[in-house]
Amino acid sequence: MTPLKFIRNLRLRQKLLLSYVIVIFLPTIVLGLYAYHNSKSSLESQFLQSADNEAKKVALEISYRLQRQDVPMKSIVFHPALIDLMSNPNQDLYTQFKTLNDKIEPIFFNLMYMVGDMNEIMLYSENRLSELGNFITPSTAVKDKDWYLETKGSDTTKWWFEDGELFATRVIYNIEFQTVSGELYVRFDYNKIFGDFIGRVNEGYGIIITDRQNRPVLTEHVGQMDDDQLQSLSRKGTSKATIGGESYLVVNKDIPQTDWILHYLAPDNQYKTGIGNILSATGIIVLICMVFLSIIIFLFSETLLKGIEKLNTKMKMVENGDLTVVVSTNSKDEIGQLTDQFGSMLKQINQLISEVYQTKITQKSAELKALQAQINPHFLYNSLSLINSKALRIDAQEISDLVNHLSSFYRTTLNKGKQIISIQDEWTNVQAYIHIQIAMHNTRFEVEFDADDKVFQFEMIHLILQPIVENAIMHGLDLKREGRGKLILRASLDGEDIVFAVEDNGVGMEPYIIERILKHESTGYGMKNVQDRLQLLFGSEYGIIIHSQPGIGTSVIVRIPQYRHIREDES
């Protein structure tokens, strides 16, 4: 069953309910969902923006703390005495020790003991093969360290966190000779750098700082993480992560002046609670709207259906034969007007019943006269039969044959007043007509019949072939001046169709005449009537096609489907 047919078969109350659901309830629910999703999106956007802002603040704060340590490191690597000491290892030891003791070590001790953030300062020399004092050692001692090559190839401070130690490195560059003299290594007190900062992270939020290998530099308010979880952390944008059984939105930010990444962890439940509140509020509003609409719909539906159900009850009583029902209403809407119109129609029916009774009497009288009129064909057949009998008595065989053909022609032509005839009878009819015409024309033309017996099991419209044959004789053969005329009738099956052909070797027709006789009522042809009757019953794809050449002849093709008429007494 198709959806359209299913809806059409529903009762009116069900159709109204379905239409209300589609037109009112469904849009209300859709609008509610739309409002919920918009609010949810807005809340998520605000939450993400807030987390992003906090992550930026944290990243800048860490960058500031590290950059503050960059100033004393620059004062070391750009100190002329230190550059000279690191670049000229061939000076005499006295001069080197004096420079180290008088100019370099005081700076180091001041930074370590007076400032307090630095726990260790070490200089690694590219030009030295042995240690000098407590602060200078050959670079060969650290060539296998991860930080060595990267520091040597950079002109900025590099920050590192390895084996629980926080340190920074920076290259010492000899500008005069355009060479690297060594590397500065400074180890910092981790707690003094990050200690007071860690406690400022909001409750429930977390911080993870990872280096370029995704190794943790700092973790705060975060559960235990394995290496796989650390490696899965994204280094850009935002992402989702589950740490210690808690779900977080992770905002990833580069920390300026370092190769580190800040992962700011904002717990999902911070905004999921707000989303739950929005969902509850939206659900309550939608529910209130639906209850209110349901009450209004119920009142309108009952008002509408009450009148229809009352009218339906009255109509069923009339259907069961009770024509005395009084149908009226005080309602002025369309249902009330329909009820009043039905009541008015019922009164008119009662009036017509009495009139029909009188009409039936008149009809019976007309049928009697029609029965008397049917005597005339029987009188004709009886008269022709008497003529045939007398012709046989005087051995006038030609007259007898002509009378038989005439009798057969009229019998099939009248066809008891029916429009549908068997092809067998139609074929007999046209054969009788042609034999009569041959006699009238003193056999001036010959005829050929070619019919497939299989076509005789079907039926067709009455009097189709006779007008075509009549045209072939009158407008074709009769006008022929040279040679003997010939008329051919064919009947055959063509797939699911039946094809009749009436061919003559008469004078033929011009194309404009063919078009005129098929599209207009032409005196003397009657072909349009035949065409209209065929297409009215069988459709526009069936009917007559005419092929004709002036001076050669004409062929009229009639195509009809394989047709059997279902009569009332058979159905």
Kindly describe this structure.
It is an enzyme of class 2 (transferase). It is a multi-pass membrane protein. The chain crosses the membrane at residues 16-36, 278-300. Its EC number is 2.7.13.3. It is found in: Cell membrane. Helices cover 53% and strands 20% of the residues. It is of the alpha+beta class. The strands form four sheets. Strands 2-1-5-4-3 form a five-stranded mixed beta sheet, with helices on both faces. A five-stranded antiparallel beta sheet has the order 7-6-10-9-8. A five-stranded mixed beta sheet has the order 12-14-15-17-16. A hairpin with a 2-residue loop joins strand 14 (485-494) and strand 15. Helix 2 (12-77) packs antiparallel against helix 8, helix 10 packs antiparallel against helix 11 and helix 12 (423-440) runs parallel beside helix 13 (465-477). The longest helix has 66 residues, at 12-77. The radius of gyration is 57 Å and the shape is elongated. The two termini are 28 Å apart. The model is unreliable at 363-375 (pLDDT under 50).
Q: Major beta sheet, specifics?
A: 5 strands, mixed
What is the total tally of β strands?
17
The overall average pLDDT, rounded, is 79
Q: Which structural class matches the secondary elements?
A: alpha+beta
The geometry reads as elongated
Rg calc:
57 Å
Give the neighbour order of strands across the main sheet.
Answer: 2-1-5-4-3
**How many helix segments?**
15
Low-confidence stretches: 363-375
Cα(first) to Cα(last) distance is 28 Å
Strand content: 15-25%
Helical content stands at 40-55%
